[in-house]
Write a structure and sequence with these properties.
Layout (H helix, E strand, L loop, with lengths): L3 H11 L6 E7 L5 H12 L5 E9 L4 E6 L2 E8 L7 H11 L8 H8 L5 E7 L6 H14 L3 E7 L4 H7 L6 E4 L2 E5 L4 H11 L4 H4 L10 E7 L3 H12 L4 E5 L23 H14 L3 E4 L3 E5 L4 E5 L4 E9 L3 E3 L15 E2 L2 H4 L7 E5 L3 H11 L4 E5 L9 H8 L4 E4 L2 E8 L4 E8 L5 E5 L2 E4 L3 E3 L29 E3 L11 H22 L1
Parallel strand pairs: 1-2, 4-6, 5-6, 9-10, 9-14, 10-11, 14-25, 16-23, 17-18, 17-23, 18-19
Antiparallel strand pairs: 1-3, 3-4, 5-7, 7-8, 12-13, 13-14, 15-24, 20-21, 21-22
């Protein structure tokens, strides 16, 4: 089932396996059973450390689990983990076989101490580029805590179960049978959500010590997108002791599929650019704490950064580069039906709306691109814009004009997402020209109305404008001594990757100058 090139590559990875790994395949019937068996046989043939055993326990024909040293790992797969989930499967084998788990020690330590029973299920699509991060995070949680189990479920293989749960977006995560979260989520978000719902062990609550009291960084960059990585690289190349703290390297860029406007790079993708950013951090030997979030900052001559793991970090300067997140409509029906007809990622959730009627809210580049992407899958797209006209690039508008199943509404203010018992049924809007209210019957709504700066954790520390953007001067200085900011989290106009990178370089040079004069 795997081609020879893939087999050779995976075989090299499997040379790292230290402990015996057993794949237990449960009994049962499914039309894809033979395909799964062929896939697992290919995997078994690539390492003497991997073996397959057949269980007499009857489930559904596509369920299997992983053991290491004949002990359960808590990791299950229901489906054939190809596509974007192939990496999740290979990582699960490698980590079960003794390779290190690539999550922050603080998170793993806290998760390992959680008491109770945690049975996670994640419904995924093999085409979803946001799903693997969730699957891999929960697999890691299972590996460090025997009370946690996680089952990846390919929604395409279980259409009746998807219909029963009315899942219209992925990843869709359930914990002990109840909906836990929907949509993309970094490890830090999953960790926060888990601790929010369940009592924090006393050992974790009291983890309030400095990570390393003797270690004071010259520069701590908070955020791992283009501006943050640039700031870190420029700081390190100035000889400054630099740390990057980020929930994920890449930031919003990681979710961008096609990038064609970075000068000297004719075309790349978000995942490819993210890999390059991570590689530059490694080559410059820059320390990083990934998958964690900053809760607050104490500002003095030496700043104290508090993490969601309970750890503290000391730094002489801070560069804030936390970027932005999708803006929400904040209308009735939106938050309640995320994953049940309301979505923010057309690439991930579009396939769930095949041959159905959907709306895209937002007439900028993001909204128009989403409408065009969806038009090849769905029955019809209604593109809704609050302003007087669509504000996308002409090349995109020309494509919309030539797409017979895209209808455009301008001067339309969305007022409510209509819902039935467990799904989206329509959208209500006000025609701003006539003040008349109208409702469109729909199966799904994709929100693409711009970004909100991720500045909430410092809103009481640095000055922001009414949009929540951190105010900076021409040298990226905030109103607080020794704290700088760059990228989409600031009031710098034009939110573009290339501009964010330039601002990151500027912030680093400003921090360097500050440290020179402070010495």
């Amino acid at each position: 089932m795997l081609d020879e090139s893939t087999k050779q590559q995976v075989k090299q990875y499997f040379e790292r396996i230290k402990n015996p790994v057993t794949i237990i395949l449960y009994s049962g019937e499914h039309e894809k059973r033979e395909e799964l068996v062929s896939f697992l046989n290919d995997i078994e043939s690539l390492s003497s450390m991997i073996s397959i055993q057949h269980s007499n326990d009857v489930i559904d024909g596509l369920r299997f689990t992983i053991l290491t040293n004949n002990k359960p790992t808590g990791i299950y797969f229901s489906g054939i983990p190809m596509g974007h989930e192939f990496t999740s499967f290979i990582l699960a084998i490698l980590q079960s076989g003794g390779n290190p788990i690539k999550l922050e020690e603080g998170i793993l330590s806290a998760v390992s101490k959680l008491k109770g029973e945690f049975q996670f299920e994640t419904f995924i699509s093999l085409d979803c580029h946001n799903c693997p991060e969730v699957v891999q995070t929960l697999n890691s949680f299972a590996l460090v805590n025997p009370n946690i189990s996680h089952n990846m479920i390919d929604g395409a293989m279980y259409p009746n179960l998807v219909k029963e749960k009315n899942i219209q977006g992925v990843p869709a995560v359930y914990l002990n049978g109840e909906r836990f979260l929907s949509g993309k989520a970094e490890a830090s978000i999953i960790f926060d959500k888990l601790l929010e719902l369940y009592s924090i062990p006393e050992e974790v609550e009291s983890n309030d010590s400095i990570t390393n009291p003797s270690e004071i960084y010259d520069v701590t960059v908070i955020g791992g997108g283009p501006s943050g990585v640039t700031a870190a690289v420029y700081s390190a190349r100035k000889g400054l002791k630099t740390l990057v703290v980020a929930d994920r390297i890449g930031g919003q860029v990681k979710d961008t599929m096609g990038i064609e406007n970075i000068i000297s790079i004719p075309y790349t993708t978000g995942p490819e650019l993210t890999h390059v950013l991570a590689d530059q951090l490694e080559k410059n030997q820059i320390k990083k704490k990934e998958n964690v979030r900053v809760q607050k900052i104490e500002s003095d001559k030496i700043k104290i950064i508090h993490l969601n793991t309970g750890e503290k970090i000391l730094s002489k300067t801070i560069i804030l580069s936390t970027g932005a997140k999708w803006r929400e409509l904040n209308v009735p029906g939106e938050k309640e039906f995320v994953g049940k007809g309301v979505a923010y990622c057309p690439h991930c959730d579009g396939p769930f709306f095949k041959d159905k009627d959907v709306a895209v809210i937002g007439g900028g580049n993001s909204g128009v691109e989403a409408a065009l992407d969806l038009s090849g899958i769905v029955k019809s797209v209604t593109l809704i814009e609050f302003g007087d006209k669509l504000n996308a690039d002409k090349v995109l508008l020309d494509k919309v004009s030539n797409s017979p199943n895209i209808k455009t509404l301008v001067k339309a203010q969305t007022t409510e997402i209509q819902t039935g018992s467990d799904k989206v049924t329509g959208l209500t809007y006000k025609d701003r020209s006539t003040e008349q209210i109208a409702t469109i019957p729909l199966d799904g709504v994709f929100v693409q109305i711009g970004l909100v700066p991720n500045s909430g954790f410092v809103k009481d520390l640095v000055e922001t404008n009414r949009f929540g953007e951190i105010l900076v001067d021409e040298k990226c200085k905030t109103n607080v001594e020794g704290i700088f900011a760059c990228g989409d989290v600031t009031n710098t106009p034009y939110k573009q990757i290339i501009i964010a990178m330039g601002e990151g370089a500027k912030a680093a040079i400003s921090a360097f100058e500050y440290l020179l004069h402070a010495a």
